[in-house]
Amino acid sequence: MGEDTSDTAHRPPIYLDSAASTAVRPEVLDAMLPYFTSVYANPSGHHAGGFRANGAIEAARASIAAVLGALKEEVVFTSGGTESINAAIKGVAFAQRDAGAGQHIVTTQVEHHAVLHSAQFLERFGFEVEYVPVDRYGRVDPAEVVEAVRPDTVLVSVMYANNEVGTIQPLAEIAGGVRERASALGRRIPFHTDAVQAANALPLAVDELGVDLLSLSGHKFGGPKGTGLLYLRRDVPFLEQLSGGGQERQRRSGTENTPGIVGIARALELAQTERAGFAARTSALRDRLLEGIRRLVPDAVLNGHPDERLPNNTHVCIPGVEGEAVVTALDRMGIACSAGAACTSATWEPSHVLLAMNVPLELAIGSVRMSTWPTHTAADIDAVVEALPAVVARLRAAGAPSI
Ligand SMILES: Cc1ncc(COP(=O)(O)O)c(C=O)c1O
User: Model pTM greater than 0.90?
Assistant: First the structure.
């Protein structure tokens, strides 16, 4: 047998990339298992197996509706965050244009590509999109979003929390301002939020947030990949983006993913019940990590809002290194995290989020995101803090990245 010569031989790997994906929680897996091999009938089937599968889906829908403070009928199951967001943006935009309401959309410069590329897709069909800028912490000014709303605006989409730098937007304030502006215009302008990064730490009650559409992705909060949901307020005009058998009340055709739906519902219930504990635990770990980085790599710069940020997000720029090189070096030591810039065909493509925040290019290419999780121990964090300075020193000695 080959000898394990990696630096991790003495300890298990440390996964600091929960913003990218999480493990399915054991409680979630247990809830899902019967629906793979026992209750596997098509939920549309007119027989005992079909009724049982359908019953499980409706129970899941009721549990999600309770978490969101919504009606059961307002919950649409999808295949993930990307699908929910595409359905929300394209479905609302096309339905309203068809109704003659206009073709103007307001969003922000720091949205996930699922939002930005859906907006760009609509631009090809004649829609006009306003991308509202952010401050140096990645926050939008609610007044600027409101000012961007016009009489022909058909949708406003602002993310809840940023997936790169963790900044939380003042969502209720923005949505409230948009609602007031819309009513002054004698209009009803649907408001969507990409809440994909929010479910572990932030409240999701849709009426309190003042949102009409909200997108979530199961694998970001201990649920399975390939599961998502869209909250769609009952009076919002919507043109379905997947046509077929008419499942999900004609809003999303396709045979339902029964185990996935059971899984995302259980995961959301757990995540929202445990929010306070999650925030306390992951922020303590995050503070330990950040303190260690600041002590041992003193010129590292924290990105994102100092306080209004996801509790488990640490996003730093390390001058004089490439973020990707740091990620690769740490990976060799069994530490998983992610970089904020990618080098494609010899040119640097820093993240659009950091550019919107006016982070200088030479800093942006050295960005690294580490996301803590409640299952981490202080020893895990200490191991990362211990590993990082040597990696940075070695990369700096090898020469500054060329821009
Ligand atoms: C903020 C945000 N929106 C949307 C998505 C897309 O979700 P999914 O990849 O699950 O479709 C992600 C995933 O990284 C995200 O972080």
Answer: yes
